Structure prediction request, 388 residues.
Amino acid sequence: MRTIRVAHVITRLCKGGAQENTFQTVRLANRDRFKVDLISGPTRGREGSIEDAVREAGIEVVRVPALVRAPAPVRDLSALYGLTRLFKERRYDIVHTHTSKAGFLGRLAAYRAGVSIIVHTPHGNIFHGYFPKCVTRVFVWMERHAARRTDRIIELTPAGIDEHLAEWIGRPEQFVAVFSGIDLAPFDRAVERRDATRRRLGFGPETFVVGAAGRLAPIKGFTHFVAAAHRLAEAAPEARFILAGQGSGMHELRRQAAGLGERFQFLGLRDDMADLMAAMDVFVLPSLNEGMGRVLLEAGAAGTPAVATAVGGVPDIIEHARTGMLVPPRDPQAIAEAVSALRRDPERRRALGRAARERIDPAYGLEPMVARIEALYEELIEAKGLEA
Prediction:
């Protein structure tokens, strides 16, 4: 049995679910079977970086400077040629691309380089809420084109598969659903520190803490979280609100939350998300489009019930009224009502949190995720006869 060379390709290693998923897939790879490289463009933007964690794990990043997230025709052509050359030089057996931009350029480059197996993980989609319709149609065409050069497309949830097929991207047999796993151990420790974390944040035992976290961009819907906070604040004087993350929408969100004063805290980029999740009484995911909602796994791992919008793959993670509450997108009143119902019923809140934790542990851990991805590789290796 020979060693299989694998390249994972992503545009940047900022703080985000797609980046964490890619990093952990590389970190936990079976080194006796796979020789794995992590290829990335420069990490830019306001969302922070996980590159320190990547280096601490002993992983070298193979840098492609022209591979950037935003459309840039000249740089994109340079990235395409650079990736093609790199794939030929290193003679990868498998190229596994992640997210839209790296997925399109990386798959074309892998096809041009004659790579035997091409796998892509979109980590969601850009079909709804990101761009004007005319731009979205261009991206859909690009995805259809790249899918014809892809052996398998890994979606995070079954709903993600349905969304791609509805746009005539790929064939049903190309798709497989593999969740984005999390490391459960930090959340166990965080639960033990819950009271200390709340004190550190300035909250007493009687404070009802409602939190959210993510990239502060319009598609994440945080403006509806802030609007819901205003409604909740009127009826619940003990309620406080925290929002962790950074992004282009920070200024507008601060303006919108100004009337809540110290009751609404912007925490910025954090390295203690497990502690924050455990400190909350309710977690809110107000997204307008979401591939899976990895933060929902984090909330569940901490035993914190979630109120989440029923978009994308979220209903595959949250079972309404059993492991959390689902609400319509763009509806602050629905968010406020769901959170208020949980505020008034602490026993139900605890029951939802317990059920969420039971669903996540151990099924959504990192090791099962990596095992499923590598089983997919083995299936393709056999089908392609790479060891014949």
About this structure: Residues 185-360 form a domain with the Rossmann fold fold (CATH 3.40.50.2000). The two ends are 10 Å apart (CA to CA).
